[in-house]
Every structure is written in C-alpha cells, then in structure tokens.
Amino acid sequence: MANIKINLLMNKAKYTSDLGENNCRIYTTGEVITEQKDFMRGHGTYVEDGLIKSSVVGVVRQINKLISVVPLKSKYVGEIGDVVIGRVTEIQKKRWKIDTNSRLDSVLLISSINLPGGELRRRNAEDEQSMRKLLQEEDLLSAEVQNVYVDGSLSLHTRSLKYGKLSQGILISVSPSLIKRRKNHFHNLPCGVSVIIGNNGYIWISPIVNVEIEGQGGFAQSLDAISKSDREAIVRIKNCVQALASCYVMIYDTSITFAYEESLKYEAKELLNHDTMYEIGFNTKLKLMQQE
Amino acid sequence: MAQELLSLQGLRIDGRRQNELRQIQCRLGVLERCDGSAYMLHGNTKVIASISGPKHPTKNSANKNRGGDEFIFNVRVKFATFSKNGERQKVVKNSKKLGEIEINLKNIFKSVILVEKYEKSQLDLNIEILQTDGSEICTVVNAATLALIDAGICMKEYICACTASLTNDGVALLDVSHLEEICGGPTLTIAALPRTGDHEQSVAYVELSQKFYLKDLNKIFDCALMGCEKIRGILDEAIRSNAFELVNSELTNN
Amino acid sequence: MAYNALSEAEKVFILHGIQDDFRNDGRSRRDFRPMELQTNVIASACGSARFCIANSDILVGIKPEIDAPFPDKPEEGKIEFHVDCSANALLDFEGRGGEELALEISNCLRITYASPFAFDLKSLCILPKHQCWKLYVDILILQCAGNLYDAISFAVKSAFYNLRIPRVNSALLDGGNVDLVLSDDPSDCDRLDVQSIPILLTICKIGEHCVIDPSIDEEICSSSNIVVGVSRNKIVSLKTISGGSFHPDTIENCIDLAISTAKTLDNTLMNILKHEESLTKSKKNIKCSFLN
Known about the structure:
Helix content of chain C: 25-40%
Shape of chain A: flat
Largest interface: A-C, 44 and 47 residues
Structural class of chain C: alpha+beta
Subcellular location (chain A): Nucleus
Radius of gyration of chain A: 21 Å
Keywords (chain A): Exosome, Nucleus, RNA-binding, rRNA processing
InterPro entries (chain A): Exosome_cplx_N_dom, Exosome_RNA_bind1/RRP40/RRP4, KH_dom_type_1, KH_dom_type_1_sf, NA-bd_OB-fold, S1_RRP4
Helix content of chain A: 10-25%
Largest sheet of chain C: 6 strands, mixed
Strand content of chain C: 25-35%
Domain K Homology (chain A): 169-207
Shape of chain C: elongated
Distance between the termini of chain A: 45 Å
Structural class of chain A: alpha+beta
Oligomer: heterotrimer
Protein name (chain A): Ribosomal RNA-processing protein 4
C-alpha cells in the first residue's frame, strides 16, 4: 500500500530551539562591533569612520586581535588545510574546475594530484590528454585546500591517500557555518557508514571502503551493489544529517552518532516528516549539552 | 477626487492614522533550495524574494559582461498573473515597467553590497510579486534586503524603503495603499539606509511623482524617512528573532 | 544550493537502491514524500492554493473572466492554463529551459482537462452561444525538487476546491446585447464540483522498475517517464515526457500502478481539503496570509 500523507501548512510548526540559556549575542548588518584601534577586521566586517562594523548577520568570532562575524548561512569561504568535497564542472588545460560551494569555482591542478598507485607523473602531453580518465565532469572528489588566491578562489590538492575520487554514496549540502572544525573530518561510524564532512558544507556518506584494498587515494570506482543493511544505514545517516541541518545543530561525528541513535525508534522514511526531524534535532541538542 | 484622503477625525480610508504603517509580516529562509529567500507581506502586498549565488558566472552572464572581472548582479522582477484585483494580468515579456524596476533595484543594492568582495562572481536576485496593494517597490526593496541578509551577503547597512503622500491640505501621509494611490496626490518613494544615532541617514533612491508645493517637500520627506526607520525596526526584529531561534552558541567557539 | 548533477557512481547507487526497494531517502517504490497544502492564499484570486511535495513548491491562482464561448461548443465554458517558473526554482530555468517545461506542463493539463469525464465545462456556461466563464488557471513554480506534474495537478485541484465564482443572478438577451446581473454580495457565489477533477501521476521508470514521486536525482536517473491523468478510477490522459521509450506491457503496469495510487491519493486530498475548510470555518480569525 502506498504511503501517502498530506499535512496542512496552516498547522505547520516552526522549529524553535528553546533550551532556555541562549545568551549569544547576534550582530546585525551595520552594527558597530568595536573600535578599529585595538583590533583587525576579518570576514564579515568592514571599517567605517574608524569603527569595525558587521556586514552580515551572525555571531562574532575573535581570534586574538582578529574580529570576524560568522553568518548563519553563506557560501563557503576557504581556508588553507580545510577538507572539502567538490564536483568537477569543467576540464581545462592542465586543471579541473571544481564546484566547492564557494562563490568562485576552485581549481585542481594536474600537478596537485597523486596518480593511481603512486605512479609519478610524466610531464608530457599524454597525461594531459588522459585527464578525463581520472576525473570526468560531474565526478565527486575529496580534497584539501592548498592555497587561497587573491580573488578568493581556492586551489586544491589530493596528495594523500585519503583524498581522491568518490565512489558510491550520497552527497548532501548544508550551510558551511554548520560544520564544526575538527582535527579529523573522515569518520567511520560504528553503524558501518563512512562520512566525510567537508568544511565547505558538502557531506559525503558512503559505505566503509577498505583503504588498503580499494586504494581510495586512487581514482578507482567500485560499481558493485551495496548490501541492503549498509544501504539502510547510509540512508538513515543521510536523513539524520538533514534533520540536524534543519534544526541548526552543529554537524560533526558526535552529533551525527547521537542523532543516529535517537532515530532508531523510527523507520528511515519517517525521518522525512518535519515533526520527527525537529524531535531528532532537539533531542540531539539536549544530549550534546548534557555531555558538555 | 472621489474620496477625502483624511477624514475630519484624522482617519484615512482604511482607518489608519496619518503616520501609521500598514501591517507588516516577514519571514526569512522560506525557500529551502535557494541560497537566500524572504517573504514579505505589507498591507496586502505580498512578495517573495530569492537569491541565487554568489556563484561562478554562468556562460550567459559572463558573455554579456565580456569577460570583465566585475561583480555581476542580475535582478528579475515578475508580477504574478493573479496579483491584481480585477482583471488577470497579461503575460508580458520585457515590459518597460519591469525593466525600470529592475534597474532601480540594481542601483539601490549596488550602493550597499560590499561589491569589492564579490568580484568575478554572479548574484541573482529574483522577485515574485504575488499580490499587489500599493507601495510595491517598497515591499520589493524590503523583501530583497531580507533575502540578501538570509544569503549572508556582505552589506553596509539594511536598505529600507517607504512611501509617503500628501493630502490637499498639506498633511503628509505615511505608507500609501493602492486605494490612496489612485485617489491622486503626489507619491514619494524613498529607499534609505536609516541607521539612527551613530551615523547620518542616507538616501539611496528617491522617486516623486506629480506636482506639489516646494514648502511641503521637507514634510513629506521626513514622513517617509520616519517610515523607513520604523520599517528598519521591524526588519531588525524579524532578523534577530530568526537568528536567535536558529543560532547555536557553538558557532562562536568553532 | 540546488544540485542537479550526478556522477556515474551516484547514479549506480540510486539504481541499486530502487532494485532493493529502498530509495535514497528510505522510501519504498510506492511511497510519496510528505506533502503540505494550504488553500486561499492569494486574496486577489478567486481560488488559490499552495501545494508542496517535499521542496517542490507550487502556487496556483484562478481568476474567472466573462468571455464568449467557442462557436462549435456553444454550451461550454473555457479553461486556460499558464505555467510560470520562478527563475531560481531550477538552475535550468535561466533562459529558455523553463519556458519549454512550462509549455509542456500546461499542454499536459490542457489535454487532461479536455476530457468530458474530467471536467464539466458546461457548468461554466452562463448563456449558451453568448456568454460563458473563462477560467484562467495560473501556476507559479516557486521551487522544484522533482515530480512537478503531480504537485501541480494537486495544487490545481486544491485551487478548484477553493474557487468561488461570482453568482450570476440573471442573464438576459436584450437584442444583440447580453445583460448580466452579478450578485452584489461577495459571499454569494458558486462552487464547482471537484470530485471528478483529475490528478496527474508521474510514473518514472528507473532500471527495470517503476516508481512514483521521483525526487530530482531520481528523475536524472530515469530512462523514461509517463504522466497518467486519473479521474475517478478512469484514465483521462496519458503522456510520455522527457524522452525515453516504454514497452507496451510496461505502460499497462504503469497505468495499473497509477490508478491504484490515484485512488488513495484522491481520497486523502479530498479529506484534507474538507478538514481544512472545517478548521477555517470554526476558527474565524485565521489570517489569509500565505506562509504563516
């Protein structure tokens, strides 16, 4: 029997995270943060009449003397060393153009990749012509930000075994400000799912691949069918991450694991309902707070 | 003129006082698949604004720009065919009226967006006017401000827009409804950066139709500016409550 | 954040999921995503509705106008459909892509409503040979997350349920001129019988299987699509869309699937419409504002 459910928009609840102690200060566009004398301006700020003002709506982040404002939602602004997930949009001479959810496409130079099997690159015309064998348009890859150009666009590299072309799985995109910066962005969750949380807000969920056999660092792709139990876990994690994003919970390994545990009382497809999503998000947030 | 704009008791056609705004409701982030969006109800004027970008310029826009490094800002405004009372609107392509609104919006927002941060990128602002009841341009500007903020675009200030009119006796009326628009009288539309206190207000856009006495100019201008300030308060509250509900203290110690 | 490109491996993952009857969001092949609905959202239209299937967001407004009937159908009214795509709804909508899609959809609606089983055009007649109602059904696509045809047809049906046509108190033929007297009381109006108004169901063939309510990613993977118009367990239209071809047997299966699904869907839709109406009546102060 088909599962069909229609709700009334009139009754639709709006998510509120009323956990009482919400005491963070929100700065809005044009609001004065501080005088320039003592501080330097970072992202999301501008200087007028010697005052540092916010140019977006968000919360202030201060690193030593650098003041920046993190907006609630925005495009990805890259930093060197970030783990990102991207999709090839165009192949040009000696470089791939990669969409990384930033305001300009990123660049992956052919000199910034490791060839499969650790082979050294012969700098000739042949390997430029075989670029499409490694990465085609629309292919997904994981990479690290190598450099930020003056115009703000990023150059990427995949010179490590953990980076490279991605095979079967699901990509979801959330706001980059929801991604918690951690030492490690590659996680193998206990439920048998591998998650790569890109700093750029793209999250890749896939079955765990044995790095040594498959050699993820290469550009091999396995197109074999995934077992149903793995698939169920992947889909559940995907729906959980979406629930977290809709409730504005920070996304990292712990929050995903908590949400997964919280979701087990429901079927995976029930997580598509707003009420269930809000419940999962809210409970995860509670659990994270208790843990602190 | 069929009807008096202001009754002897000091009430307008729809029962408002002379310096009273119509009801305003707004919400941010209504369209989940866009980078930023906002919905605005001002009186009975209903508008949805959505943002796509900043992104790598599409081939079309890049060609138009002839490979320059400038910030590409596209604005598209559309009246829904069912937006007006009475007869259905015809579907018109490239209408002059819309083109004019689009150019105005482009200029208004280029004055507040920190353009230098978006060199080489493209930003698309798309506006759907679902229902009209006067002061459409204002509602569009206010909705677009909210959508830009929702998308996290760097701006100097909010831009708020408001209208004002004048009765025959020289009394300024704030926030003109459709009924008052067709009753005649001059209509002033302004878009301003109305931060009070720490900075002088500045006006980014003015449009004034019909003739009136110069001595009334200040009156009508002040009236509209006061409206902008009030609207700024309303937008600010909506933005803050939206942010407050969502924001997580963890954002800071990231 | 709209993402419409998929790599080969992602497509394989979706394909295998459909074989396993476990889709990328946990649904089975016979499940719809959660839907939401609100009627009477546009005050300047005589009938209006907003309908969402997940993030596919449709707004419909109906305006009646008085017109002369076609000479060959003197006792019938007219309906005209017009579809408009919001430019940010889909990336492809930039430029002409949106216009073609809009034309395709409005054509599909036109042939569906042309059937006398589906819609009683005679009910729109005011004075045979001289005057009839012409209903302009204007559809605005605010967002698209797949399955547009279905979402639009549900939205149109809901708007028809909400439609109030001004009552004509008398229509007299005075010489060559028609003398119409419309009721002065705005609450005095006619409603249409919507029971038989058809709904459209898209059946999407992915690999060897047929699925309903395809998401945007699934639409990319599909080999062929067929839209079935169903009114009271009868088929009123059949149309293949976006290329591909069907084996005649598959079409039969698709039709069976469409009829059985449409039955449940139609019941659910009518029930929720009645439910909403009773709620609106009991709570007089519900604001007629869209998106609240």
